[in-house]
Amino acid sequence: MKKETMGFKGGFHLLDAYPLPFCTIIDEISSDGAPEQFQFPVTGQKIEHVIVNLCPTEPWALPNWVILKHKTAAFLSMLKEIKTSYFSDARFHLAINEKEDRAVEDAVNFARAEDWIKVIPLCAKYPQDDPVILAQVLLGMDVSFGQDIKSLGILIVDAQTVSAMYEQGIMRKDVNSRYVVLSGTGLRENEIIRAELGTSVEKILKNKVKDASTCRVFMNGPLRGKEISDFSQKIDWSVNNIVVFEEKSRKVLFPMFKADELAFTTSLLGELRRCVYCNFCDDICPVDLEPALYYHSYIRGEKHKARLYNMGKCIECGLCSFICPSKLELLKIIRECKALDKHE
Ligand code: SF4
Ligand code: SF4
To answer: Nearest bound ligand to CA 313?
Structure first.
């Protein structure tokens, strides 16, 4: 069994640092219009490898138990039907959190009698489940950030997408809703909801936010997701979670070590300081980059020069911004420099 994953230095054990308790009652929320439909993720491309990601690495992501319901063998039987119907020539790779002992044992027992699937228990260190890292670790393939990996014959799906593929593709049922995790210090409680596709963020968060005037809202997590200010936007299948943080009016020094608070996101509070050359960002980067170099080029006005230092390899995991004690928004700088390509 693998422990620390090969070819993957850096990273951070977010799940250990920020264990989030969830209310187990699942609220159902309907959209105001006709709900949108789940789109089967493959239409015509030849798929050689299907990676099933049962190794979420972020505390605000949908946990496996919501879909698997602790019945891993039943889940894998569904997967087998999907394979037979849609991916008969593909190899399946099941990436599973090595700490979920029962699920790992069930998966290994199931796979003993099957030659189409390989079970790979992994350390759930963030960002192990990033497509670039998964392809590298499981298939030994170099995939570029943002590349259409289906064009390389690789499909990566999570547990919820497998379940939707089964419902729609095998059971011939409509799939027009999904589970979304709501968490963060700005909410009254952390919870999991089931929302129709097309429901607005505003409707989802109604009566759940402590104080809407002093919070920041992130779709798909504060690290690699996006902060949003337009709450009329509607959720689609890509929205796994919504995180709401209370804006702090006091300085939070070394917030990454405060395990009881997800308070590490903001640098809008006069906390911004100079780079102190601590190298934390270099050490944590999972693809061996030196984010401080980007920052120093950027503040000298040399955005184009910043891109020379392998910036294209950055997988936008956000760990450098997360760990920086000076609260420098390194990922924001990286995205701005990368975007120069598109404007040229
Ligand atoms: S956002 Fe990019 S540079 Fe920063 S830690 Fe992640 S991969 Fe490295
Ligand atoms: S983590 Fe922040 S302060 Fe430390 S070297 Fe990187 S940019 Fe500078």
So the answer is: 1
The residue ranges of DSSP E strands in 98-187, in sequence order, are 117-122, 154-158, 177-183
Q: Is the pTM of this model over 0.70?
A: yes
Residue nearest atom 8 in ligand 1 by C-alpha distance: 285
Domain boundary among 154, 170, 186: 170
Look at ligand 2, atom 1, and give the residue with the nearest C-alpha: 324
List the CATH number of the domain containing 211: 3.10.20.90
**From atom 2 of ligand 1, which residue's Cα is the shortest distance away?**
314
The domain total for the chain is 3
Cα–Cα distance, 81 to 278 (Å, whole number): 51
Average pLDDT per consecutive 10 residues, the chain (344 residues; last block may be shorter): 58 90 85 91 89 96 94 97 96 96 97 96 95 94 92 96 97 97 91 96 94 86 91 96 80 54 48 84 95 92 84 94 87 91 60
Ligand 1 centroid distance, CA of 314 (Å): 5
Cα–Cα distance measured from residue 333 to residue 344, given in angstroms and rounded to the nearest whole number: 18
Q: Which of 153, 170, 187 is the last residue of a domain?
A: 170
Q: Which residues sit with their C-beta closer than 6 Å to ligand 2?
A: 275-281, 291-292, 295, 323-326, 328, 330
